[in-house]
Amino acid sequence: MTLVPPPFMWGCTSCLLLYAGVLREARVGDGAVRAQLALAAHLVEDHPDDVPPPHAEGCRICPGYASNPDPARVARLWAEHRVREYFLPERAARRW
Ligand SMILES: [Zn+2]
Ligand SMILES: [Zn+2]
User: Fold this and answer.
1) Tens digit of pLDDT for each residue in 76-90?
2) What's this model's pTM, rounded to 2 decimal places?
3) Which of 41, 42, 77, 92 would give a disulfide with 88, using CB separation of 3.0 to 4.6 Å?
């Protein structure tokens, strides 16, 4: 997994604008988390077919969502967790 966003993001103006915000905030801003949440929310809402499957191993976040007694309630948060690998290094993407 590289830092470069996947091809489908390059074809979406919203993805590019939000990704630019993530990069900018990572360097100079204090809104890094907010920028990441905004991009993750956009990916889940507008690119549902591109949300990755649950991480099989090496992730301490996915098992918690997988065993949640109320799947519908956590579906959105879980999807936002999985799309972070499109714009964050794997270690950072799987931390939350
Ligand atoms: Zn997009
Ligand atoms: Zn995961």
Assistant:
1) 999 999 999 999 988
2) 0.90
3) 92
